[in-house]
Amino acid sequence: MGDSLGKFIKTLQLDTRLLGMIGAFLLIAVIFNVATGGTFLTPRNIFNLTLQTASVAIMATGMVFVIVTRNIDLSIGSIVGVIGMVMGLVQAFWLPEIVDFGSPVIVVVTVICGIGLGILIGGLQGWMIGYLMIPSFIVTLGGLLIWRGAAWWVTRGTTVSPLDPNFVMLGGASGTIGVTASWALAIVGSLATVWFLMSSRRQQASHGIAVKPVWAEVVLGSILVGSIAGITAIINAYEVPVRVLQRRFERAGLEMPEGYTEAYGFPISVLIVIAIAIVMTIVARKTRFGRYVFAMGGNPDAAELSGINTRLLTVKVFALMGGLAGIAAVVASARLASAGNDLGTLDELRVIAAAVIGGTALAGGVGTIYGAILGAFIMQSLVSGMGMVGVDAPFQNIIVGAVLILAVWVDIIYRRRTGEA
Amino acid sequence: MTTPLLEMRNISIHFGGIKAVDDVSIDLMPGEVVGLLGHNGAGKSTLIKILAGAYKKDSGEIYVDGKKVDIRSPADARKYNIETIYQTLALSDNLDAASNLFLGREITTKFGLVDDTKMEAESRKIMARLNPNFKRFSEPVRSLSGGQRQSVAIARAVYFNARILIMDEPTAALGVHETAMVADLIKELKAQGLGIFLISHDTREMMELCDRVSVMKNGQLVSTERVEDVTEDDVLSMIIMGKKPGEKEDA
Q1: Between B86, B99, B142, which is nearest A291 by CB?
Q2: Would you place residue B251 in the very low, low, confident or very high pLDDT band (cuts 50, 70, 90)?
Q3: CA separation, residue A292 to residues A68, A299, B103 (Å)
Q4: In this structure, what are the phi and psi dihedrals at residue B16, rounded to the nearest 5 degrees?
Q5: What residues in A contact B75, CB-CB < 8 Å?
Q6: Is A123 an 8 Å CB contact of chain B?
Q7: How far is A173 from chain B (nearest CA, A)?
Q8: ipTM
Q9: Nearest to A307 among B75, B93, B108 (CB)
């Protein structure tokens, strides 16, 4: 039985580490579901879980590149803080003097400022690491203090609130796309998945490289499409509470029809996470930049002797990390509808933990984008699950810390078994 | 006399106060194998790293086909079809054979993305020629044997039409059978007209494979001799004493 399952997995060319992580994730979910008497796996909680995970998941994809190149970034939580504050000022104080309140220009300019500032800060730190040869641990440890201090200094410690209503849609439950659009996206995603499987098969065959049996492709495709449909169905099952709907109708001066219901659909922030996951996966596996990131992580000397400019590559990796911190700052401050100077505090540790739980090796050279995102969800499920069960805050930290160490230990054993060094 | 494929004239480089390479001149003809011999720290590896673009020389000139060239980076060296196989096997252990073979020179699709399928197919073609037993194309090279890794490194040089091939201890990590395979390959590449610099500690192997040997000691060139003009003992005494065969009688 075990043997035939192994053969099945091998024929499908599935990543056993990924399967292990999904298994761990499901196990955590089921345990909390039992412990909370069935509330953990409700559509409402899953919906909230995805919102809470978004900003850490976004940054975890960039952290994979940072760690793969044998670096670390301890400054991203503080970068989120300073970018959140600057974006708060831009949208609440500076832009309203130039354009009308509620104008879409505000959100566009604010987001561009945030991402741009992130790229600048990350690029500056990357330059110090790549060209001045200061260890990334030190540069970003300094950055952790500098940018948190800067966040405080920008507004003298006051919180900017409320934020622009269009901006807030990028992070919270107010920005969802509804049921129809969610299903439409799910269909587009499924078609793209099937097309991708078919075209890569055709390409391999055209070069005479052995392909999987057709049934394996069909099983794999069915699992993927089934997952997309399942997640969409769960998210679409979370309905807007009746009170909220009533208030909305009252504000419009209308009577709410009897039995009227409406569901949220996918939040915009979750779509941002999905888009970033896809783009970052392509960057990691299908671009020269991504290839060089992994080559440098595997053997920096070999990369250099192959003509790769590893210094400039380091700058690019940290600039990318900074840009992603900018996007994370958008999502995080939008979710809270305010920009406080403590925004993003301790995020660097959550992000590093997510990447490491997701199989990114601190020795460099190894890591996946999907692993990091799954790692972020595992961390967040653990934290919010314990909160729901009523575990005291100090115990929550103790457990999260222990799980991090355990996960890495299991990973080390796994690598030793599979001979992955 | 034909123009040398490569000439390095009066090359010097120092690290701190130490002259690692001191006014060394060597040359290489098409279809010729020149061995570089010397103790550890004699300057052989430093000299060829200058040619490969990994180090920048302090002074001296390099000529390819009689034309002066400026080599400042590994990319420059590749431009002149100078390929290097390093002692340390400069491979990224976490990448597969095809990714290593094409590292820095990936084949891309019309959208600018790396074309792994095409690169794997090309790798299979070149490997079928160099090492027909090589089958593990999709595994990270860390799981390969020393000989298999060596064939990836050699395939990289051959695929990109190396004219000048630098081999730094190509057989140091290999077993008997694999060493013989590399020796055959060197003969084949030589027959195709490549110029090869070979670095090795194995004097006997060098006498067998090389046309000429250049011996270095303490950063300086002791002498360059045709292998048929010297015995293995002569070469050993040049390595140890730093003296040319002719000088031996005077001493």
Answers
A1: B99
A2: very low
A3: 11, 10, 8
A4: 65, -125
A5: 307
A6: no
A7: 36
A8: 0.84
A9: B75
* Mean pLDDT computed over A257-278: 90
Render pLDDT for B162-217 as a digit per residue (tens, 0 to 9): 899 999 888 777 778 878 888 888 888 899 889 999 998 888 888 889 999 999 99
pLDDT of A135 over the 90 cut: yes
pLDDT in tens, B213-249: 999 998 889 889 898 888 888 888 888 888 776 665 4
Is the CB of residue A384 less than 8 Å from the CB of residue A49? yes
pLDDT of A183 reads 95
Determine the pLDDT at residue A206. 83
CA-based nearest distance B237→chain A, Å: 34
B95 with A286: Cβ contact below 8 A: no
Mean pLDDT of B15-28: 90
DSSP B18-71: EEEEEEEEEEE-TT-EEEEE--TTSSHHHHHHHHTTSS--SEEEEEETTEEE--
Of A286, A298, A302, Cβ closest to residue B114 = A286
Three-state DSSP string of A129-152: HHCCCCCHHHHHHHHHHHHHHHHH
Burial of A107 (0-12, 13-18, 19+ CB in 10 A): buried
**Candidates A209, A306, A360, partner chain B, best to mutate (most B CBs within 10 A):** A306
DSSP B172: T
Interval A47-80: pLDDT, tens = 999 999 999 999 999 999 999 999 999 999 999 9
- Residue A419: band (very low, low, confident or very high) from pLDDT cuts 50, 70, 90: low
Q: Do the beta carbons of residue A354 and residue A376 sit within 8 Å?
A: yes
Residue A380 confidence (pLDDT): 92
User: Residue A285: closest CA among chain B residues belongs to which residue?
Assistant: B114
Q: Give the mutation candidate from A204, A305, A310, A311 for the B interface (greatest B CB count, under 10 A).
A: A305
Using CA atoms, how far apart are residues B130 and B127, in angstroms rounded to an integer?
5
* Cβ neighbours of A206 in B, within 8 Å: 117
- Pick from B20, B27, B78: which is nearest to B47 by CA? B20
Of A286, A306, A366, the CB nearest to B103: A306
The answer on pLDDT for A11 being more than 80 is no
Chain B residues in contact with A207 by the CB 8 A cut-off are 117-118, 120-121
B107 touches chain A (CB under 8 A): no
CB crowding A187-213: b at 16 or more within 10 Å, else e? eebbeebeeebeeeeebbeeeeeeebe
Q: Which residues contact A371 (CB under 8 A, 6 or more apart)?
A: A17, A18, A21, A64, A355, A358, A359, A360
